[in-house]
Design a protein that fits this description.
Elements lengths: L1 E9 L3 H12 L4 E4 L14 E3 L1 H7 L9 E11 L5 E7 L5 E3 L2 H14 L3 E3 L6 E4 L5 E6 L2 E10 L6 H5 L11 E10 L2 H8 L5 E9 L7 E7 L3 E9 H7 L4 H9 L5 H4 L3 E11 L2 H4 L5 E2 L2 E3 L8 E2 L4 E2 L1 H19 L6 H14 L1 H8 L1 H6 L4 H19 L8 H12 L3 H14 L1
Parallel strand pairs: 1-2, 1-10, 2-7, 4-12, 10-17
Antiparallel strand pairs: 3-6, 4-5, 4-6, 8-9, 9-10, 11-14, 11-15, 12-13, 13-14, 16-17, 18-19
This protein binds flavin-adenine dinucleotide.
The site of flavin-adenine dinucleotide has 41 residues, from helix 1, strand 3, strand 11, strand 14 and strand 15.
């Protein structure tokens, strides 16, 4: 049996749902296909979403399953002994919220179906089909063919369909990071008391150093209404070489970490998940984002910014998905979704857009974050040793200079080496 749609969107993550919403809002007959049960069941993320591009694409966030608006940001460097230096920012305006991705994806899919898109779940697309001229003309799922004028591939980081279609190479572990996450329920009052939050206020907390055992990557803690999301993102290549224990035991260590455990003590772990993510969106980007009859959006297109202290995946996915959906409408009015039309209507505007330009501009920061042992173990050790000398006083009181020199010796970093690193980091930024 063969059915026909104007557009088929593969994957009901933030990118696919936004694409289906945009295309259906413009009057296209849209099919949104998801292999998981319901929207969001196969997705994993930390939990913090920047609202700007969602509001731009969707017009408003009415009914969005927002857990808390982030009013407090924390950045911590932790050494192997658990000594922690924290920078806290509050009092600014809230531009991000916490949410469970399953609920957020379901809400986005609701927006798409309300606009007229047809959503089917528990159907895995097996391949992208081409017609004899080489144009992408449909998808095959479970032996059935669905024909379409245009396909929007929003299959996420694994992008097996694009690989099978010969549009991307097999992902290199150098370009991937592994995320593991737990959600711990402690109750609404406890969330606010333990993290020092006002009613309804949210916290976003990024930690580096000893929390990953010195491996390149970082840890995150986000507060939801009555739960806390905590997790690790590790650069796969470095982790595979250095890791000495299973990843699930690393998250166990994070949960039971002496500096952190009190925040969720006596809570119940209600969710555990793990997933890959592009380590650097810019490097992960396919050479082209369109082909005849096809557009690529979201993680599959490398639309993700990971600076260590900032992670923008969901909002960039929504943004690129929305642009792809709009381009599908514009292409119909311009003679069809030929490669040339899609390049002009989707790829080029996306490459000129703010998110894309930021990915390009900040690619050096992403690369510098891979600095390995120095940034993720030795500098946290230096920081811990210096602060210990300054704050844990006995008979003598060291000057800051003496504390730094002693710490440099203890961590094996020379002051000149640190200055060179700072310069190199500044240059790459
Ligand atoms: C641990 C971790 C923490 C993160 N933290 C954050 C964060 O705090 N904030 C943030 O903004 N971003 C975060 N991200 C990134 C964010 O999750 C992604 O950038 C975002 O989900 C990308 O959306 P997407 O729609 O492109 O892909 P996905 O969300 O991966 O959705 C792709 C969908 O396609 C479906 N699919 C795949 N193949 C097929 C097929 N063949 N047939 C049918 N369906 C298919 C999948 O089941 C999935 O539902 C994090 C990621 C990880 C792994």
């Amino acid at each position: 049996m063969c059915v026909r749609f104007d557009a088929v969107v593969v994957g009901a993550g933030p990118a696919g749902a936004a694409a289906a919403y945009a295309a259906a809002s413009g009057g296209l007959k849209v099919l949104l296909v998801e292999r998981g049960r319901g929207a969001g069941s196969k997705q994993v993320y930390g939990g913090k979403v920047y609202s700007h591009y969602l509001e731009e694409a969707l017009g408003d966030l009415k009914g969005a399953p927002i857990e808390r608006w982030v009013g407090k940001e924390r950045l911590s460097i932790v050494d192997d002994a658990g000594r922690t230096a924290t920078l806290e920012y509050e009092g600014g305006s809230t531009r991000a919220f916490t949410a469970h991705l399953t609920k957020l994806a379901a809400w986005l899919v609701d927006r798409a179906t309300s606009a007229g898109a047809v959503f089917v779940d528990e159907v895995r697309v097996d391949s992208l089909r081409r017609d004899p001229s080489g144009r992408f003309s449909g998808v095959e799922a479970g032996g059935e063919l669905v024909e379409a004028d245009v396909i929007i591939d929003a299959e996420g980081v694994n992008r097996l369909l694009l690989e099978r279609a010969g549009l991307v190479e097999r992902a290199n572990t150098r370009d991937l990071a592994l995320g593991v996450k737990e959600v711990v329920r402690i109750g609404e009052k406890e969330v606010e008391e333990r993290f020092g939050l006002d009613k309804g206020e949210g916290l976003s907390w990024i930690l580096v150093g000893g929390v990953t055992g010195g491996l390149p990557g970082g840890a995150f803690v986000y507060t939801n209404k009555d739960t806390v999301s905590l997790g690790l993102v590790l650069y796969v290549d470095a982790a595979a070489r250095a890791i000495e224990e299973p990843v699930h035991s690393m998250i166990e260590k994070l949960r039971t970490h002496p500096a952190l455990h009190r925040y969720w003590a006596d809570g119940d772990v209600v969710e555990y998940a793990a997933k890959l993510t592009p380590e650097s969106g810019y490097r992960y980007m396919p050479r082209r984002l369109v082909a005849d009859g096809l557009m690529v959006a979201g993680d599959a297109a490398g639309m993700l910014l990971n600076l260590g202290y900032t992670f923008r995946g969901v909002d960039y996915a929504v943004y690129s998905g929305y642009m792809a959906g709009r381009a599908a409408i514009a292409a119909r009015d311009r003679g069809g979704p030929t490669e040339e039309n899609l390049r002009e209507l989707y790829e080029e505007p996306l490459r000129r857009s703010r998110p894309f330009r930021d990915l390009w501009r900040l690619r050096g920061v992403e690369r510098a974050m891979e600095g390995g042992d120095r940034y993720f173990r030795r500098y946290p050790t230096l920081m811990g040793a210096a602060l210990r000398s300054v704050f844990e006083l006995g008979e003598s009181t060291p000057s800051i200079y003496e504390a730094l020199m002693g710490a440099a010796e203890e961590s094996g970093i020379s002051i000149i080496g640190a200055l060179v690193d700072a310069l190199m980091m500044a240059r790459s930024i």
